[in-house]
């Protein structure tokens, strides 16, 4: 009986080893299939990626050209805006020199009216200066 149980145990060990060996072979076969499938698929995907990247580069170059044109246009506008700026600053200073309420005598009858007018126009001049 002891020999019989030893035989059963030995048969179980052989069966377990056989199952493990089959699983190992199956795992290697799956890896090989993945590798072959990857080799078959890569050139096509690589071609698609290359075509996509070329299309992306063309669209980006068109976008870069449009942005360069916009920068050139804005530089021209800035140059034109800076040209009248000194004249505007001189006009603003002259307006302040002539009409600022601090330059009026305290007892002038039209002082409140001139203060209100100065504040209103000064706000407009500041808005023009800020917004361009």
From TrEMBL:
Record key words, sorted: Membrane, Transmembrane, Transmembrane helix
Transmembrane segments: 6-26
Protein name: J domain-containing protein
Domain of life: Bacteria
């Amino acid at each position: 009986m002891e020999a019989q149980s030893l035989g059963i145990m030995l048969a179980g060990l052989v069966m377990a080893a056989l199952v493990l060996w089959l699983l190992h072979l199956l795992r290697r076969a799956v890896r090989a299939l993945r590798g072959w499938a990857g080799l078959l698929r890569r050139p096509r995907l690589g071609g698609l990626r290359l075509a996509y990247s070329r299309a992306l580069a063309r669209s980006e170059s068109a976008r870069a050209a449009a942005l360069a044109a916009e920068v050139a246009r804005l530089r021209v506008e800035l140059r034109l805006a800076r040209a009248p700026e000194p004249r505007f600053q001189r006009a603003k200073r002259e307006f302040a020199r002539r009409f600022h309420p601090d330059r009026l005598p305290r007892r002038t009858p039209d002082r409140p009216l001139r203060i209100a007018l100065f504040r209103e126009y000064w706000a407009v001049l500041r808005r023009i200066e800020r917004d361009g």
